Amino acid sequence: MEAAFSKVMVVKIGSSTVTRPDGSVDCDYLANLARQVACVRAQGWAVVIVSSGAIACGLSRLGIERRPTDLPSLQAAASVGQPLFSAAYDEAFAAEGIATSLVLLTRRDTADRTSYLHARDTLRRLIDFQVVPIVNENDTVSVEQIKFGDNDTLGALVACLLGADLCVVLSDVEGFYDANPATHPDARLVPRIERIDAEVLAAAGDAGSSKGTGGMVTKLRAARALAVAGIPLVICSGAAADPIVSVARGDRIGTLFPAAHLPHEITPRKLWIALGDSSKGSVVVDEGAKRALIERGSSLLCVGVACVEGRFSHGDVVDIKDRSGYLFARGHVAFDSDEVELAIGRTREELAGNRLLKALAVKELVHRDELVVFE
Ligand SMILES: Nc1ncnc2c1ncn2[C@@H]1O[C@H](COP(=O)(O)OP(=O)(O)O)[C@@H](O)[C@H]1O
Ligand SMILES: N[C@@H](CCC(=O)OP(=O)(O)O)C(=O)O
């Protein structure tokens, strides 16, 4: 089949944007969305949509006004809402002559590299078939501890998976503000963020509505992974006039997070490490280790560890933070947390001189090939 598209855009749409205040599917919004997608497709963009809203829609259909807090109720609501959503998407896009498909993913799928690559191949083939895939988390079977929970991470993951050219997050705010606008009425929109540092992260708050789940925190985490992946991200209001068409045209709306120009190459496998699985704990490192990872692209050794948080096992993904709690890297660990704790406070020589602890001195805790640095 002849390639119909030259670029790929992933559009993430939040629950508040795509549902009415009562939680039902906003069919007028979907009709407008389909028209915009048809417009950018005609300009060569393949579009993949990551849409939230199944839970809100299911609760509305079940007549449940207050969002439950227990997982089975939310999962049951998603099971009711997802087919309603899929049907509404299909109808809206069919009016533009566009076929849609449903792709439901869980962390379990994306944490496993083989399943992750299969998801990529399927999405690519759907694009070849000129279908607009509608992606969501498979909430009905997701297990709490390993849920994406928010679709911002899932959107970034899909964009990285496809090596997208652009990711757009349609939210219920105009973009990223220098403080949470829900609690700071004088907060100002920031049109462009070159680097997501600790100060920027500190300005991000939780979701402002009862429907949204991630707020700005998860959007910024997604933005960091996208930046290292070389994929620009725009966060803008889903209620703006034709936001997808505007962003595709290069209009300055919302907040742009441009792609980072890193000195080191980031492989697809590293992007999978950044986003595929949830972290099982954290490793807090000293300044020397932080510099070695960022400036020299070194592996992380146990001697650089100040403390560990949570319990993790060999092969798990962990967050890597500095002493102030600033998360700057992620990677697969080669030791269990109990083993790492044995190394804390000991010099490399002490470890090397101890028959039982020697491995902690010589083997990397996180090998550079298993490490993704967000700086
Ligand atoms: N610094 C910030 N800038 C903008 N919005 C913020 C910020 N901090 C927290 N928020 C909140 O994040 C919300 C958007 O995230 P969320 O509720 O998850 O919506 P969505 O469903 O669009 O993903 C905003 O409505 C706002 O209340
Ligand atoms: N997977 C969930 C979406 C999770 C969620 O609420 O995300 P968001 O509205 O983007 O903050 C659903 O479809 O209801």
Question: How would you describe the overall organization of this protein?
Answer:
The protein is of the alpha/beta class and 375 residues long. It has a seven-stranded mixed sheet, with helices on both faces. Helix 2 runs parallel beside helix 10, helix 7 packs antiparallel against helix 11 and helix 9 runs antiparallel to helix 11. The structure holds adenosine-5'-diphosphate (ADP) and the ligand N[C@@H](CCC(=O)OP(=O)(O)O)C(=O)O. The ligand N[C@@H](CCC(=O)OP(=O)(O)O)C(=O)O binds next to helix 3 and strand 4. The site of adenosine-5'-diphosphate has 24 residues, from helix 1 and helix 9. This is Glutamate 5-kinase. Pfam families: AA_kinase, PUA.
How are the SSEs placed, and which strands pair?
Elements: E1 7-13, H1 15-18, H2 27-41, E2 45-51, H3 54-62, H4 71-94, E3 100-105, H5 107-111, H6 113-128, E4 132-137, H7 151-162, E5 166-171, H8 198-202, H9 215-229, E6 233-237, H10 243-249, E7 255-257, H11 268-275, E8 282-285, H12 287-296, E9 305-309, E10 317-321, E11 327-332, H13 337-343, H14 348-352, H15 358-362, E12 371-373
Parallel strand pairs: 1-2, 1-5, 2-4, 3-4, 5-6, 8-10
Antiparallel strand pairs: 6-7, 8-9, 10-11, 11-12
Helix pairs in contact: 2-4, 2-10, 3-4, 7-9, 7-11, 9-11
Bound molecules: adenosine-5'-diphosphate and the ligand N[C@@H](CCC(=O)OP(=O)(O)O)C(=O)O.
Throw out a few tags for this protein:
five-stranded mixed sheet; alpha/beta; 39% helix; binds the ligand N[C@@H](CCC(=O)OP(=O)(O)O)C(=O)O; 375 residues; Carbamate kinase; Archaeosine Trna-guanine Transglycosylase, Chain: A, domain 4; seven-stranded mixed sheet; 2 domains; binds adenosine-5'-diphosphate; 15 helices; globular
